[in-house]
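Q: A reviewer asked whether we had any structural model of the full assembly, not just the individual parts. We don't, so I'm hoping you can provide one. Inputs are below.
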Amino acid sequence: MTLKSDTPFKIDVQRSAEFVIARLIGSCTMDVAQEAVDRLGRLAAEPVDRVVVDLSELVFIESSGLGALVAAHGHCRRRDADFCLVSPRASIRKMLVLTHLSDVLPIYDDLESALRRGR
Amino acid sequence: MIEIVVQSDLASAKRPEELILAEVERCGYCPGAAFAIKLALEEALTNAVRHGNSGDATKHIFVRYRVTRERTEIEIRDEGRGFQPDCVPDPTRPENIDCPNGRGIMLMQAYLDEIEYVEPGNLVRLVKWNR
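A: Here is a predicted structure for the entire assembly that you could use as a starting point for your response.
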């Protein structure tokens, strides 16, 4: 993994009547983290039962990006919708554990498990 | 140490990060140490832009660094009045866990070998060993 040049950050979205899947791709660095805050905030407000954030292709995240996950989780909780994370890489899972966010943000190993999850 | 001064905005702050990480890569750092240095740079530079310089893009950030095969030392200074790092709430406590902000210093402390704020708190010294 080359860190000096960031992999471009983007969010791909897949929707159904019940859920939204947001795939975070690339490096969520300080200069693009606000995009994550804005996009995830809007997705968390959509009228679905479940918001799933797929982290399997996310190679880097800093604290503002983690904050975007926390804020989106809060949006979902306030409207009684589910929110969860899927497949973070080891380096990002370590950050979630160190910050204790793994205690409050449900994390699944694969997308199928996240979508099967009961309310 | 090498010195670089950049305008206080998040896009300009990427320049010293790129220069330092290029040296880290040239020196063959292990992936874990390189990740830690990148994370610390992101957090410290963001803090300098947003909090130290209060988002004022007319101000500047002053970065000094030395990268050897053994360790990386970085100093980041802003033009702000400083702060008391001991007064920053612990983001891992239950009453703070839902707050979107406030994890940057905690992450730097977790990933670096040394982190020191120099009075009045507008200069931070970061050290990471390559191991």
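A: Points you may want to mention in the reply: Chain A touches chain B through 28 residues (CB under 8 Å). The mean pLDDT of chain A is 93.
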